[in-house]
Amino acid sequence: MAELADQVLRGDLRALARAATLIENQSAESLLRELSPHAGRALILGITGAPGTGKSTLCDQLISLLRAEGKTVGVIAVDPTSPITGGAILGDRIRMQRHHADPGVFIRSMATRGIPGGIAHATADLATLLDAAGRDVVIIETVGVGQSEVEVARLAQVTILVTVPGTGDDVQAMKAGVLEIADVFVINKADLPGTDKLEQELHLIAGDRPLLRTVASEGQGIAEVLQAARECKRGAHLRPADASPRIDHLGIAVRSLDQALKFYEAQLGLHVAMRETVAQEKVNVAMLPLGDPRIELLEPSEPDSVIGKFIDKRGEGLHHIALKVPNLLNSVERLRSAGARILNEPRPGAGGHLYVFVHPASTCGVLLELIQA
Questions:
Q1: Structural domain boundaries enclosing 165
Q2: Same domain for 102 and 206?
Q3: Strand-by-strand arrangement of the 43-48 sheet
Q4: Residue 216 and residue 313 in one domain
């Protein structure tokens, strides 16, 4: 894996494709450990919206604009899953085929494989791969299931919501989730009737967020969308809130995820946004959003796991508190210089985020997890 990581970092496209396949097959933990320290430089854009809004056409035009600037691009196009092969059935690489021979553009179609929220299980890891491989911009195009595609906002620095006029849906009837996560609103196919009405409705929701018109098939308005996305990223770094840690989740150790979810889902009405196994920690994880913070349920996948030992000693209950920080590496260096006991080097965990644990002896008795925002 170290040799493959070195090839990826040198820009070997075949190595990049092999690495992407390993990530999709969830066989790349050691590879990601090698690559993660090299990530963090790319602009990561999320493109979401209902089917037929022209997301792929918008992506295609963004790619052309970025390549004209000399930027390299990675595209993760998440598609529905084939019931026969388990692979992606729409194939956005076909829709963006004019870029297929350009070494500065790497496009990967991924199947959702049953994962809700508009993205695939390995999307976060693949974004890390493309970032570490030196792509200047990484575009994540969601599957197009409609209003439930909120998970992309956890991966993208800037989320672009694409809408179209004349679909018959009132904006007020749309679920809050996908409207709340948008950083930039785009009305595509703005040459169609109903554009003014849709713009008026979206203005009430967008507030100060950019609201732009495009005709992506003609290349109109694309430069303005890219400029708005870049300004959003710059503005995010200037927000005072981003300078301070904020709660990401509370980790709760449970003997059985299925039993625990009978309470959290059935009694509290929460829903599972992500469920996965983190092999290196020997733990099964279920994430339940509570607005921006989340509850993380942790079930030991093997008896000798840290969570298993915790439950044997203390029983089920609060295991740790996780804080999201704007720069994990800087935070770790600062804590170490102050004498704090860091339990591991930064590594990818649930959802692909880099994390470290801080020993309870340094935090007045609470196990603290720090996560890269």
A1: 2-238
A2: yes
A3: 105-111, 73-79, 137-141, 43-48, 158-163, 184-187, 211-213
A4: no
